[in-house]
C-alpha cells in the first residue's frame, strides 16, 4: 500500500476573481495564503492560482485564466483539472508508489510533470477528480502569504 495522503486543498475556477477575493477575504474571513501565476502547457494558457485558508486551516484554491469564459461545469473548453480535490503526500517517491498502486488496480490516471513536481490526476467512480502530489508542507509559508497579494494584484493589472 502506498504512503498515506491527506486533503491539501479543494480547487475550482473563479468566475469573477475580484468577487471571489472579496467573498473569501471579507465574508468568510479567509486569508489569502498563496498565489502563483505561470503558463500551463496542458491548458496552453497563462493562469493565476490563488489559495485562501479558512480560519480552521481548510484551503480553497481558485484558478483564473484568460480563456475562462464560463459557464460551469459543463464548458467543453474547461481544462480537465480545474475542479479537483488535492491530496498531498510527503515525497516524490510516494507519488511514484501511488502511480504503481493505481496501475495495479487498473485505475486510469493522467500524469503531469512540469520538471518541478509530478502530479497524478484520477477520477473516482462518481467522476470526482483528485490530484495526488508531493510536498512536505502546504503551500502557505509566511513568505508565500506575504507575496500572495502582490501576485494577485499583478494578475489584476494593479500597480
Structural class: alpha+beta
Residues in helix, %: 10-25%
Shape: globular
End-to-end Cα distance:
50 Å
Q: Note poorly predicted spans.
A: none
Largest sheet: 8 strands, mixed
> Strand order across the biggest sheet?
2-3-4-1-5-8-7-6
Order of helices and strands: EHEEEEHEEEH
Average pLDDT works out at: 82
Total count of strands: 8
Structural commentary:
This protein is of the alpha+beta class and 159 residues long. It is built from three helices and eight strands. The protein starts with 5 loop residues before the first strand and ends with a helix. The protein is 24% helix and 35% strand. A hairpin with a 5-residue loop joins strand 7 and strand 8. Strands 2-3-4-1-5-8-7-6 form an eight-stranded mixed β-sheet. It is globular. The mean pLDDT is 82.
Characteristic key phrases:
159 residues, alpha+beta, 8-stranded mixed sheet, globular
Amino acid at each position: 500500500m502506498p504512503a498515506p495522503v491527506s486533503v491539501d486543498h479543494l480547487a475550482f475556477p473563479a468566475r469573477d476573481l475580484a468577487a471571489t477575493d472579496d467573498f473569501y477575504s471579507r465574508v468568510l474571513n479567509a486569508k489569502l495564503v498563496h498565489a502563483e501565476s505561470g503558463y500551463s502547457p496542458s491548458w496552453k494558457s497563462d493562469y493565476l492560482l490563488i489559495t485562501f485558508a479558512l480560519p480552521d486551516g481548510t484551503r480553497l484554491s481558485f484558478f483564473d485564466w484568460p480563456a475562462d469564459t464560463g459557464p460551469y461545469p459543463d464548458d467543453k473548453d474547461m481544462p480537465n483539472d480545474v475542479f479537483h480535490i488535492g491530496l498531498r503526500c510527503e515525497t516524490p517517491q510516494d507519488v511514484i508508489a501511488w502511480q504503481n498502486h493505481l496501475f495495479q488496480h487498473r485505475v486510469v490516471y493522467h500524469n503531469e510533470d512540469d520538471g518541478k513536481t509530478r502530479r497524478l490526476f484520477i477520477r473516482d467512480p462518481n467522476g470526482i477528480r483528485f490530484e495526488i502530489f508531493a510536498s512536505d508542507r502546504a503551500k502557505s509559508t509566511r513568505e508565500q502569504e506575504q507575496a500572495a497579494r502582490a501576485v494577485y494584484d499583478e494578475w489584476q493589472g494593479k500597480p
